[in-house]
Design a protein that fits this description.
Layout (H helix, E strand, L loop, with lengths): L1 H6 L4 E7 L3 H12 L7 E6 L4 H13 L5 E5 L7 H11 L4 E6 L2 E3 L3 H7 L5 E5 L2 E2 L2 H7 L7 H4 L13 H7 L17 E5 H6 L13 H11 L3 E5 L5 E3 L10 H14 L14
Helix pairs in contact: 2-3, 10-11
Amino acid sequence: FYTKLFLMHTSVALIIATYNWPQALEQTLRSVANQTILPNEVLIADDGSDERTANLIQKFKEAHPTLNIVHVWHEDNGFRLAAIRNKSISMAQSAYIIQIDGDIILDQHFIEDHLSIRTAGSFVTGSRLLLGKKITEVLLESEKINFATLRWKGKNFFNTLRIPLLMRLLQNSYKTKGKHLYDVKGCNMAFWKSDLYLVNGYDESFSGWGREDTDICIRLLHAGVKKKFIKFGGVQYHLYHPLASRDQLDANDALIEQLKLNQISFCKQGLIKPEL
């Protein structure tokens, strides 16, 4: 009880990115409502979904008023994940921001685990279990999820294990240096809002799928913010979906190489944009 009381001293916003998949978003929100520690606010970063998503969010807001859900939307104009995340970050009232996607089912301790390893001057990333197509189809029609059996239904079984002692022991050493230094998963990250403003948030010059999460990781490191990895905690399950188009990946990879070379930490097209 006292541990949870201490963790709740930090105000936390949960940002959930989504686009035109309300069935998956509903399962994500159900898992949020089941958390051992609820976020102070839930911001749905909606990259231009139609009214089906708006209707689902309104329905959930009415059923779960304590979640303090805010629907953050912009017009559908192609893949603009960085822009809608920035818009959500700027609207967040909380000091700490946890970021997931709207096709993720959270273990009930997810937010509690993230808060338990938060420290000033650091950001956190984690992993997830990849679920298969058949189990995803079942889950999308389910009202209750059996997590004890779910961990056997996808790849990366060890990503489903929650061992708080090992989580705390490995947070500063697992995948925080060498070839894994830039390894991040945008569906499982956490930051201090002040650190996001230090680097000007996500770089909106990235277009199409890919590397916007790597970009913010590198710029945070360049700014002196340390990387942590949440292993054996912060467990989440990723619903199956077909891969997004990789048409812009080569161009985005080129931006990443320039970023590394020039030691850039602050992006121009981010939370704060130059006046025209």
